[in-house]
Amino acid sequence: MSLCFFSMTEANAGAGEPAAPDRYAAARRHMVEQDLQDRDIRDPAVLAAMAKVPRHLFVDARYQAEAYADHPLPIGENQTISQPYIVALMTQSLKLGRHDRVLEIGTGSGYQAAVLAEVAGQVYTIELHKSLAGRAEKLLRTLGYDTVSVRCGDGFFGWPEQAPFDAVMLTCAPGHVPQPLIDQLREGGRIIVPVGGVFQVQTLMLGTKKQGRLNLENIAPVRFVPMRGRIEKSTP
Ligand code: SAH
């Protein structure tokens, strides 16, 4: 399954801290106040993470000036980095604790993984595209996110060697929640996932695992890139 594997055990200076106040600090503050706090993002740890992670470094140079705007941006391979509000909403919905182990499916740029690393414990993230996985891993390492491990492969199968997880997040949309991800979630754990096919309206759903099954609630209508790979041949 795994095409490549990256483990981030090297301790890097900074632990996610930008070296000096950057030229985007004001834009980032504005984003937090206007696009997050003025909506329904209340969790102090999530707001602090969004105020800290240098989102402009996760987008291509030509989009840096737009990095803190209230919309998604292209990251290559026909994929996108989510709107900041959606990143914050999904993170907040998981009600993460400092020591929680989190699995993310859809590393993309690595931005969401960095935000998760700021509020949780170990973060495991899987990306289907080798080029994106490689780039994200390199940037996360440069920024000192040594609690994040990146794997290139099909997230449908999860990361069984590291299970169980306290929380799972999908940032690509499957038609239904892959069973291996439910199996790898601990009892009482939470999963956030945009469910819906390619041309369908998708619904962001929050699930809690109770007696081996997911109790799902609807959070918001959303639009994510589709989950590819094994899920396309799988039935619920
Ligand atoms: N979380 C990312 C954005 C994700 S975009 C960020 O913060 O930048 C969705 C990503 O899911 C894309 O990079 C896409 O390649 C990936 N993806 C799609 N199907 C996948 C699968 N089966 N397993 C792992 N990643 C997948």
List the defining traits of the structure above:
236 residues, Rossmann fold, eight-stranded mixed beta sheet, two-stranded antiparallel ribbon, disordered N terminus, binds S-adenosyl-L-homocysteine
**Total helical elements:** 6
Q: What would CATH call the architecture?
A: 3-Layer(aba) Sandwich
The CATH superfamily is identified as: Vaccinia Virus protein VP39
Radius of gyration: 16 Å
CATH domain topology: Rossmann fold
Largest pleated sheet: 8 strands, mixed
Tell me the β content.
25-35%
Share in helix: 25-40%
Quaternary state reads single chain
Number of domains: 1
Order of helices and strands: EHHEEHEHEHEEHEEE
Fold and architecture overview:
- With 236 residues, this protein is an alpha/beta fold.
- The protein has one domain (24-233): Vaccinia Virus protein VP39 (Rossmann fold).
- Helix content is 25%, strand content 25%.
- It contains six helices and ten strands.
- It has helices spanning 25-37, 44-52, 84-93, 111-119, 130-142, 179-183; strands at residues 4-6, 73-76, 79-81, 102-105, 123-127, 148-152, 165-170, 185-195, 202-210, 213-222.
- The protein has an eight-stranded mixed β-sheet with strand order 1-6-5-4-7-8-9-10. A two-stranded antiparallel sheet has the order 2-3.
- The two termini are 21 Å apart.
- It binds S-adenosyl-L-homocysteine (SAH).
- The site of S-adenosyl-L-homocysteine has 25 residues, from strand 3, helix 4 and strand 5.
At a glance:
The chain has helices at residues 25-37, 44-52, 84-93, 111-119, 130-142, 179-183; strands at 4-6, 73-76, 79-81, 102-105, 123-127, 148-152, 165-170, 185-195, 202-210, 213-222. The protein has 236 residues and is α/β, with parallel strands linked by helices. The longest helix has 13 residues, at 25-37.
